């Protein structure tokens, strides 16, 4: 039976070309600053986004948490949408690592605006936590892969500048956003103080994320990474996978988006599906008439793995290891459940 894993774009395995790049990586002890492949990945990623410096970390959770630590002091507050990964899926790390609180906004599919943020910035008052940071997510995971355009980001960056707030981007899927919007990665550096870029989502590297910022922030971030136990030695083998992913797996993201669009269109024709969120990138969120658990069991019986995000909501994520023939198979199975 054909199997298709639509649970997440984290499930990809390294391609033969990527493994080749990993085997042949030049490595050294990165804690001594001697791993040239790690340095190359950090510099390459920074250059792509027009930022000064980078820090290679094991996960997007770590890059986000380090950024929050760099951009806040204990007793500060950050502003984010209520669906934000940094708040919901990083284990309460904002309070634990940074001693900061979080002000949550109710955006549209996770997208917030300068108009929504401005009234939530606390005035200088001994009663109030000091607002110091805004965190955006692009694409928004919980928003079904929804995107900010640069035109959406600019007024937020301008507000942060005026109010003296830092602006961090959780860009776990930033290349998916860029693929959809057509914005240029190099323009992002002007608007964000920090950017997290995941290599292990749609880009298909086995592990790793890069935090981007200015050189002095990255110098401090390197200390924080060490404190968290993230000083990794010959990490160049993993960085090589990241470099390969940046060189070979960005262009192809449009294939994942096309696959997700097909799934979204087919789902919206089915009577057992009550609603499909608009598909912008590689995530399809849809609501089911029956419980999600029942539908997932039927899909699993046909070799299709997916996940539920609410009692009646299922998520499909397309990626590198889902090919056109597998999408055809999924469409056939979806129709057979009518
Ligand atoms: C996956 C993800 C992260 C980072 O997750 P890790 O598993 O820690 O690499 C961060 N933000 C968003 C929106 C994500 O989807």
Automatic annotation (TrEMBL):
Its EC number is 4.1.2.5. GO terms for molecular function: threonine aldolase activity. Residues 5-288 form the Aromatic amino acid beta-eliminating lyase/threonine aldolase domain. Pfam families: Beta_elim_lyase. Keywords: Lyase, Pyridoxal phosphate. Its cofactor is pyridoxal 5'-phosphate. The keyword Lyase applies. The keyword Kinase does not apply. Belongs to the threonine aldolase family. This is Threonine aldolase. It comes from Mucilaginibacter pocheonensis.
